[in-house]
Design goal:
Elements: E1 5-9, H1 19-36, E2 42-47, E3 50-55, H2 62-69, E4 77-84, H3 89-103, E5 110-117, H4 126-141, E6 147-148, E7 155-161, E8 165-168, E9 172-173, E10 185-189, H5 195-204, E11 209-216, H6 223-240, E12 243-249, H7 251-260, H8 266-284, E13 290-291, H9 304-311, E14 318-319, H10 327-337, H11 340-343, H12 350-353, H13 365-374, H14 376-388, E15 391-395
Parallel strand pairs: 5-6, 5-7, 10-11, 10-13, 11-12, 13-14
Antiparallel strand pairs: 1-3, 1-4, 2-3, 4-8, 4-9, 7-8, 12-15
Helix pairs in contact: 3-4, 5-6, 5-10, 7-8, 7-14, 8-9, 8-14
This protein binds adenosine-5'-triphosphate and magnesium ion.
Amino acid sequence: MDYRAFLVKYAEIGVKGNNRYIFENALVKQIRLALDKCEGEFNVRKESGRIFVDVLSDNYDYDEVITWLQRVFGISYICPMLQVEDEGFDKLKEEVVKYFGEAHEDKNVTFKVRCRRTRKDYPVESMPMAAGIGEALLMAYEKDGLKVDVHNPEILVEVEVRNHIYIYSHSIKGPGGMPIGTAGKAMLLLSGGIDSPVAGYMIAKRGVEIEATYFHAPPYTSERAKQKVVDLAKEVARYAGPIKLHVVNFTDVQLAIYEGCPHDELTIIMRRYMMRIAEEIALKTDCLGLITGESIGQVASQTMKSMMVTGEVCTLPVYRPVVGFDKQDIVDISEKIGTFETSILPFEDCCTIFVAKHPVTKPRADIIRKHEEKIKDKLDELARIAVESEEVILCEAAD
Ligand code: ATP
Ligand code: MG
């Protein structure tokens, strides 16, 4: 089928009143960015409360367009539409019959026709139009089992008369959520693991723009480990849009903690410094919160007590969208969004370099603060240098 247009449907809940045009404009912008990734030329337009994509060029790749539209948050359904010209109602009936024949292999189904006329000079009104087309479809396919069901049809055939006439009956599910750019920005603590890319995806799905911070510890962690995080950022960027990745050299901070603090508290104190540094960068870049991939009880540093002690150093809210997820639930999402294969590549993370055999699982904030206090001046100075020497990498969506 030669689809030359797409109708983009979005869930309207929460987009009433003044918010509606902000939502729609953000969605149009994100659709354009997604289509920029596709071969061919397209026009995206708003028309009477709906969003249309027209294919302008002769050549384009249908599957590629669907793949990229399915990554645009805010889209609930994508309907590929057959576009025909007005050559009289009899011709239109023929077109719909031909369309149905090609679009639905199985004719042993129930259906209903719904028509809409935005061009009021079309000579047939919506109701008789639907009845006439329904009759034509029955004449053609009743012998194959096609039946009308006006209440609960398996297939809804829609015909819209505008400047062109559109015929459609397939709805392809979009990702849902809210368009990027409708909810402010947040800073993702992005490691090379499975959880944090998923956490970033989930928050982006609510319309939040993402920046990211990665702590690397050369020479203990390799260039390849860093490249893996860049690759993950590019994969998340397919959904979230371009991500600015702040790469912070964490080696000296880690070494100072290793030398100056009890080893069973290493991870907690190290994580407190990660949060502090990420927050500092977040505040400078107008982020309204931090995002981590923590999940209760997954490891020693993610017990509720540990998260309380790491979270207390921040004034910004810390969003932990996978906090109540089992590992398998997180893995399922990472497979679905395409980050899993990169996440499981075997490169070292700075968290795994300096680990104690028996890390505390129930840290006490007062004791941690006391130990940290002894080397705080030195750590703060090293943290400041680390922030000043950050490297910023713009990660555009991977193909
Ligand atoms: P992930 O799969 O996201 O790496 P994890 O299960 O390995 O998570 P931890 O290593 O304890 O868990 O990290 C918890 C969270 O802290 C991560 O989800 C991430 O948000 C952040 N984090 C950990 N290491 C780094 C790092 N090197 N750079 C930036 N953030 C990090
Ligand atoms: Mg990790």
